[in-house]
Amino acid sequence: MIKVSAPGKIHFLGEHAVVYGKPALLTTVNLRMSVILRAKPEGSIANDKLKKIIEPIIKKKFNLKIIPPYELDISSQIPIGSGFGSSAAVSASYIAALLSHLGYKWDLNVINQLTFAAEKVFHGNPSGGDNSTVVFGGLVWFRKETPDLKIIQQVPFTIPNKLSKNFMLINTGNPKETTKDMVELVSSKVKSQKSKFKKIFEDQEQLVRELVIALKEGDENELIKIIRAGEKNLESIGVVSSYVASIIRTVEKAGGAAKICGAGGKTKGAGVLLAYHPTKNTLEEISKALNLPYFSTSLGVEGLRQE
Ligand code: PMV
Fold it and tell me: Is 253 exposed, middle or buried (0-12, 13-18, 19+ CB in 10 A)?
Protein backbone atom coordinates (compact mmCIF):
# COMPACT_ATOMS: atom_id res chain seq x y z
CA MET A 1 0.00 0.00 0.00
CA ILE A 2 1.32 3.43 -0.93
CA LYS A 3 -0.11 6.53 0.75
CA VAL A 4 0.81 10.01 -0.48
CA SER A 5 -0.54 13.41 0.44
CA ALA A 6 -0.22 16.93 -0.92
CA PRO A 7 -1.44 20.25 0.51
CA GLY A 8 -3.68 22.82 -1.08
CA LYS A 9 -2.27 26.20 -2.02
CA ILE A 10 -3.27 29.83 -2.32
CA HIS A 11 -1.79 32.84 -4.06
CA PHE A 12 -0.39 35.22 -1.46
CA LEU A 13 -0.04 37.84 -4.17
CA GLY A 14 0.90 38.27 -7.83
CA GLU A 15 -1.88 36.26 -9.50
CA HIS A 16 -2.77 37.45 -13.02
CA ALA A 17 0.37 39.65 -13.14
CA VAL A 18 2.27 36.32 -13.13
CA VAL A 19 0.81 35.52 -16.55
CA TYR A 20 2.69 38.61 -17.83
CA GLY A 21 6.06 37.61 -16.39
CA LYS A 22 5.75 39.25 -12.97
CA PRO A 23 6.61 37.32 -9.81
CA ALA A 24 3.97 35.70 -7.61
CA LEU A 25 4.22 34.54 -4.04
CA LEU A 26 2.27 31.37 -3.30
CA THR A 27 1.92 29.34 -0.15
CA THR A 28 0.69 25.91 0.85
CA VAL A 29 -2.27 25.61 3.24
CA ASN A 30 -2.84 22.88 5.77
CA LEU A 31 -5.75 21.23 3.98
CA ARG A 32 -4.51 18.01 2.42
CA MET A 33 -5.41 15.63 -0.36
CA SER A 34 -4.49 11.97 0.22
CA VAL A 35 -4.32 9.09 -2.16
CA ILE A 36 -3.90 5.43 -1.26
CA LEU A 37 -2.76 3.13 -4.02
CA ARG A 38 -2.89 -0.66 -3.74
CA ALA A 39 -1.62 -3.11 -6.32
CA LYS A 40 -4.51 -5.36 -7.34
CA PRO A 41 -4.72 -8.13 -9.94
CA GLU A 42 -8.05 -6.70 -11.06
CA GLY A 43 -7.48 -3.08 -10.21
CA SER A 44 -10.12 -0.41 -10.56
CA ILE A 45 -10.16 3.28 -9.93
CA ALA A 46 -13.24 5.20 -9.01
CA ASN A 47 -12.13 8.34 -10.78
CA ASP A 48 -11.77 7.23 -14.35
CA LYS A 49 -11.51 10.76 -15.70
CA LEU A 50 -8.42 11.37 -13.61
CA LYS A 51 -6.89 8.07 -14.69
CA LYS A 52 -7.38 9.02 -18.34
CA ILE A 53 -5.41 12.22 -17.73
CA ILE A 54 -2.61 10.89 -15.53
CA GLU A 55 -1.74 7.51 -17.03
CA PRO A 56 -0.94 8.77 -20.56
CA ILE A 57 1.40 11.38 -19.06
CA ILE A 58 3.30 8.71 -17.12
CA LYS A 59 3.35 6.29 -20.05
CA LYS A 60 4.73 8.94 -22.37
CA LYS A 61 7.41 10.10 -19.94
CA PHE A 62 8.71 6.58 -19.19
CA ASN A 63 7.89 5.04 -22.53
CA LEU A 64 5.58 2.41 -20.99
CA LYS A 65 3.02 0.31 -22.81
CA ILE A 66 1.10 -0.89 -19.76
CA ILE A 67 0.79 0.00 -16.09
CA PRO A 68 0.23 -2.94 -13.69
CA PRO A 69 -3.33 -2.77 -12.29
CA TYR A 70 -4.00 -0.97 -9.05
CA GLU A 71 -6.77 0.49 -6.98
CA LEU A 72 -6.85 4.10 -5.88
CA ASP A 73 -8.68 5.79 -2.99
CA ILE A 74 -8.76 9.55 -2.86
CA SER A 75 -9.79 11.59 0.16
CA SER A 76 -9.55 15.33 0.49
CA GLN A 77 -9.99 18.29 2.82
CA ILE A 78 -9.42 20.72 -0.07
CA PRO A 79 -12.51 22.47 -1.49
CA ILE A 80 -12.76 22.04 -5.26
CA GLY A 81 -12.91 24.99 -7.64
CA SER A 82 -12.23 27.82 -5.19
CA GLY A 83 -8.56 28.53 -5.90
CA PHE A 84 -7.09 26.03 -3.42
CA GLY A 85 -5.20 24.12 -6.11
CA SER A 86 -7.14 20.88 -5.65
CA SER A 87 -6.37 19.70 -9.20
CA ALA A 88 -2.62 20.19 -8.67
CA ALA A 89 -2.78 18.41 -5.29
CA VAL A 90 -4.66 15.38 -6.61
CA SER A 91 -2.48 15.11 -9.72
CA ALA A 92 0.76 15.41 -7.74
CA SER A 93 -0.32 12.78 -5.17
CA TYR A 94 -1.61 10.38 -7.81
CA ILE A 95 1.52 10.77 -9.97
CA ALA A 96 3.84 10.29 -6.99
CA ALA A 97 1.92 7.18 -5.84
CA LEU A 98 1.96 5.75 -9.34
CA LEU A 99 5.72 6.31 -9.64
CA SER A 100 6.22 4.34 -6.42
CA HIS A 101 3.89 1.61 -7.74
CA LEU A 102 6.05 1.40 -10.86
CA GLY A 103 9.22 1.22 -8.77
CA TYR A 104 10.65 4.63 -9.68
CA LYS A 105 12.51 6.63 -7.09
CA TRP A 106 10.83 9.92 -6.24
CA ASP A 107 12.27 13.02 -7.79
CA LEU A 108 10.27 16.14 -6.89
CA ASN A 109 11.40 17.92 -10.06
CA VAL A 110 10.08 15.09 -12.23
CA ILE A 111 6.83 14.89 -10.24
CA ASN A 112 6.43 18.65 -10.61
CA GLN A 113 7.01 18.47 -14.36
CA LEU A 114 4.45 15.66 -14.77
CA THR A 115 1.94 17.45 -12.54
CA PHE A 116 2.33 20.53 -14.72
CA ALA A 117 1.48 18.39 -17.76
CA ALA A 118 -1.72 17.28 -15.94
CA GLU A 119 -2.52 20.89 -14.99
CA LYS A 120 -2.35 21.82 -18.68
CA VAL A 121 -5.03 19.22 -19.41
CA PHE A 122 -7.19 20.61 -16.59
CA HIS A 123 -6.67 24.32 -17.17
CA GLY A 124 -5.38 25.00 -20.68
CA ASN A 125 -2.42 27.30 -20.19
CA PRO A 126 -1.58 27.55 -16.48
CA SER A 127 1.56 29.30 -15.27
CA GLY A 128 2.76 26.31 -13.25
CA GLY A 129 2.66 28.08 -9.90
CA ASP A 130 0.04 25.79 -8.35
CA ASN A 131 1.84 22.52 -9.03
CA SER A 132 5.23 23.93 -7.97
CA THR A 133 3.77 25.06 -4.65
CA VAL A 134 1.94 21.87 -3.71
CA VAL A 135 4.93 19.72 -4.70
CA PHE A 136 7.73 21.69 -3.03
CA GLY A 137 5.73 23.21 -0.16
CA GLY A 138 6.30 26.26 2.04
CA LEU A 139 6.29 29.78 0.65
CA VAL A 140 7.14 29.76 -3.04
CA TRP A 141 8.42 32.59 -5.21
CA PHE A 142 7.36 31.86 -8.77
CA ARG A 143 8.17 33.65 -11.97
CA LYS A 144 7.77 32.65 -15.59
CA GLU A 145 10.70 34.13 -17.50
CA THR A 146 9.95 32.48 -20.85
CA PRO A 147 7.47 29.69 -21.69
CA ASP A 148 10.21 27.15 -20.89
CA LEU A 149 12.07 28.88 -18.08
CA LYS A 150 10.52 29.28 -14.65
CA ILE A 151 12.05 30.49 -11.46
CA ILE A 152 10.62 28.38 -8.64
CA GLN A 153 12.29 29.30 -5.39
CA GLN A 154 11.26 28.26 -1.93
CA VAL A 155 11.44 31.35 0.28
CA PRO A 156 14.09 30.59 2.93
CA PHE A 157 12.09 31.51 6.04
CA THR A 158 8.74 30.76 7.62
CA ILE A 159 6.09 33.32 8.54
CA PRO A 160 6.62 34.45 12.15
CA ASN A 161 3.98 33.17 14.53
CA LYS A 162 2.80 36.66 15.50
CA LEU A 163 1.54 37.05 11.91
CA SER A 164 0.74 33.46 10.95
CA LYS A 165 -1.77 33.03 13.78
CA ASN A 166 -3.92 35.87 12.42
CA PHE A 167 -4.61 34.67 8.88
CA MET A 168 -7.90 33.17 7.92
CA LEU A 169 -9.21 31.77 4.64
CA ILE A 170 -12.79 32.72 3.86
CA ASN A 171 -14.64 30.96 1.06
CA THR A 172 -16.84 33.30 -0.98
CA GLY A 173 -18.09 30.42 -3.13
CA ASN A 174 -17.01 28.87 -6.39
CA PRO A 175 -16.71 31.41 -9.18
CA LYS A 176 -19.06 30.99 -12.11
CA GLU A 177 -16.12 31.65 -14.40
CA THR A 178 -13.21 29.27 -14.85
CA THR A 179 -9.59 30.35 -14.37
CA LYS A 180 -9.28 30.23 -18.15
CA ASP A 181 -12.26 32.62 -18.54
CA MET A 182 -10.71 35.07 -16.09
CA VAL A 183 -7.25 34.91 -17.70
CA GLU A 184 -8.88 35.57 -21.09
CA LEU A 185 -10.92 38.44 -19.68
CA VAL A 186 -7.76 40.10 -18.38
CA SER A 187 -5.92 39.38 -21.61
CA SER A 188 -8.57 41.17 -23.68
CA LYS A 189 -8.37 44.21 -21.39
CA VAL A 190 -4.56 44.18 -21.50
CA LYS A 191 -4.78 44.47 -25.29
CA SER A 192 -7.07 47.49 -25.22
CA GLN A 193 -5.60 49.27 -22.15
CA LYS A 194 -1.89 48.50 -22.41
CA SER A 195 -0.40 51.32 -20.36
CA LYS A 196 -2.95 51.09 -17.52
CA PHE A 197 -2.27 47.36 -17.09
CA LYS A 198 1.49 47.77 -17.41
CA LYS A 199 1.41 50.18 -14.46
CA ILE A 200 -0.83 47.93 -12.38
CA PHE A 201 1.34 44.85 -12.98
CA GLU A 202 4.51 46.81 -12.14
CA ASP A 203 2.90 47.99 -8.93
CA GLN A 204 1.85 44.42 -8.13
CA GLU A 205 5.44 43.24 -8.63
CA GLN A 206 6.67 45.90 -6.20
CA LEU A 207 4.03 44.82 -3.66
CA VAL A 208 5.06 41.17 -3.96
CA ARG A 209 8.67 42.15 -3.18
CA GLU A 210 7.56 44.25 -0.21
CA LEU A 211 5.33 41.42 1.00
CA VAL A 212 8.26 39.01 1.27
CA ILE A 213 10.08 41.53 3.47
CA ALA A 214 7.00 42.32 5.60
CA LEU A 215 6.41 38.61 6.20
CA LYS A 216 10.02 38.00 7.15
CA GLU A 217 10.10 40.93 9.53
CA GLY A 218 6.67 40.23 10.99
CA ASP A 219 5.58 43.78 10.12
CA GLU A 220 1.82 43.76 10.64
CA ASN A 221 1.08 47.32 9.52
CA GLU A 222 3.03 46.83 6.30
CA LEU A 223 1.32 43.49 5.69
CA ILE A 224 -2.15 45.02 6.01
CA LYS A 225 -1.17 47.89 3.69
CA ILE A 226 0.21 45.49 1.08
CA ILE A 227 -2.79 43.14 1.10
CA ARG A 228 -5.16 46.11 0.74
CA ALA A 229 -3.14 47.62 -2.11
CA GLY A 230 -2.77 44.26 -3.87
CA GLU A 231 -6.53 43.69 -3.64
CA LYS A 232 -7.15 47.19 -5.03
CA ASN A 233 -5.06 46.31 -8.08
CA LEU A 234 -6.99 43.06 -8.55
CA GLU A 235 -10.23 45.04 -8.41
CA SER A 236 -8.85 47.49 -10.99
CA ILE A 237 -8.22 44.70 -13.46
CA GLY A 238 -11.81 43.51 -13.06
CA VAL A 239 -11.44 40.11 -11.40
CA VAL A 240 -13.37 40.81 -8.19
CA SER A 241 -17.18 40.79 -8.25
CA SER A 242 -19.02 43.57 -6.44
CA TYR A 243 -20.41 40.96 -4.00
CA VAL A 244 -16.89 39.92 -2.99
CA ALA A 245 -15.57 43.50 -2.99
CA SER A 246 -18.23 44.38 -0.42
CA ILE A 247 -17.15 41.47 1.83
CA ILE A 248 -13.58 42.73 1.60
CA ARG A 249 -14.69 46.32 2.46
CA THR A 250 -16.34 44.90 5.61
CA VAL A 251 -13.04 43.29 6.66
CA GLU A 252 -11.12 46.51 5.91
CA LYS A 253 -13.57 48.69 7.86
CA ALA A 254 -13.09 46.39 10.83
CA GLY A 255 -9.33 47.09 10.68
CA GLY A 256 -8.16 44.07 8.68
CA ALA A 257 -7.29 43.26 5.09
CA ALA A 258 -8.44 40.64 2.62
CA LYS A 259 -7.82 39.72 -0.98
CA ILE A 260 -8.97 37.17 -3.51
CA CYS A 261 -6.45 34.38 -4.14
CA GLY A 262 -6.11 33.28 -7.71
CA ALA A 263 -8.24 33.88 -10.76
CA GLY A 264 -11.20 35.55 -8.98
CA GLY A 265 -14.71 35.87 -10.36
CA LYS A 266 -16.80 38.66 -11.78
CA THR A 267 -20.37 37.43 -11.25
CA LYS A 268 -20.64 36.49 -7.59
CA GLY A 269 -18.30 34.07 -5.80
CA ALA A 270 -14.58 34.66 -6.29
CA GLY A 271 -13.23 31.61 -4.48
CA VAL A 272 -11.13 31.80 -1.38
CA LEU A 273 -10.12 35.06 0.32
CA LEU A 274 -6.91 35.44 2.26
CA ALA A 275 -7.86 37.58 5.24
CA TYR A 276 -5.73 39.06 8.00
CA HIS A 277 -6.74 40.87 11.16
CA PRO A 278 -4.69 41.78 14.27
CA THR A 279 -7.50 40.10 16.24
CA LYS A 280 -8.49 37.02 14.27
CA ASN A 281 -11.75 36.68 16.16
CA THR A 282 -13.05 39.64 14.19
CA LEU A 283 -12.66 37.65 10.95
CA GLU A 284 -14.58 34.75 12.43
CA GLU A 285 -17.39 37.05 13.48
CA ILE A 286 -17.58 38.62 10.02
CA SER A 287 -17.61 35.21 8.29
CA LYS A 288 -20.32 33.91 10.60
CA ALA A 289 -22.44 37.04 10.15
CA LEU A 290 -22.14 36.71 6.35
CA ASN A 291 -22.67 32.95 6.47
CA LEU A 292 -19.39 32.21 4.73
CA PRO A 293 -17.36 29.05 5.40
CA TYR A 294 -13.90 29.74 6.76
CA PHE A 295 -10.70 27.87 7.54
CA SER A 296 -8.25 28.72 10.29
CA THR A 297 -5.41 26.80 8.77
CA SER A 298 -1.62 27.12 8.89
CA LEU A 299 0.18 28.51 5.87
CA GLY A 300 3.53 27.41 4.46
CA VAL A 301 3.19 23.73 5.40
CA GLU A 302 5.13 20.80 3.96
CA GLY A 303 4.55 19.89 0.31
CA LEU A 304 4.07 16.46 -1.23
CA ARG A 305 4.97 13.62 1.14
CA GLN A 306 4.75 9.89 1.54
CA GLU A 307 2.65 9.03 4.60
O1 PMV B 1 -7.31 29.68 -10.15
P2 PMV B 1 -6.00 29.58 -9.50
O3 PMV B 1 -6.01 29.73 -8.03
O4 PMV B 1 -5.22 28.37 -9.92
O5 PMV B 1 -5.14 30.83 -9.92
C6 PMV B 1 -4.92 31.26 -11.20
C7 PMV B 1 -3.84 32.26 -11.16
C8 PMV B 1 -3.66 33.07 -12.42
O9 PMV B 1 -2.54 33.90 -12.21
C10 PMV B 1 -4.86 33.94 -12.69
C11 PMV B 1 -3.42 32.17 -13.63
C12 PMV B 1 -2.14 31.37 -13.57
O13 PMV B 1 -2.05 30.40 -14.33
O14 PMV B 1 -1.19 31.74 -12.86
Answer: exposed
Q: Which of 127, 172, 201 maximizes ligand 1 atoms within 8 Å of its Cβ, making it the mutation to test the pocket?
A: 127
Could you give the CA distance from residue 207 to residue 249 in angstroms, rounded to a whole number?
A: 20
Count Cβ atoms below 10 Å from residue 160 Cβ, excluding itself.
Answer: 14
- Could you tell me the mean pLDDT of each successive run of 10 residues in the chain, 307 residues long? 97 95 96 94 71 96 93 93 92 97 94 95 85 96 90 93 95 93 94 97 98 97 98 98 98 98 95 97 97 93 95
Cβ-Cβ contacts under 8 Å for 106 (sequence gap 6 or more): 96, 99, 100, 306
Q: Which residues line ligand 1 (CB under 6 A)?
A: 11, 15-16, 18-19, 83, 126-127, 129-130, 179, 183, 262-263
4 and 305 in contact (C-beta within 8 Å)? yes
d(CA 97, CA 73): 11
DSSP letter (8 states) at residue 66: -
Rounded distance between C-alpha atoms, residue 283 and residue 277, angstroms: 7
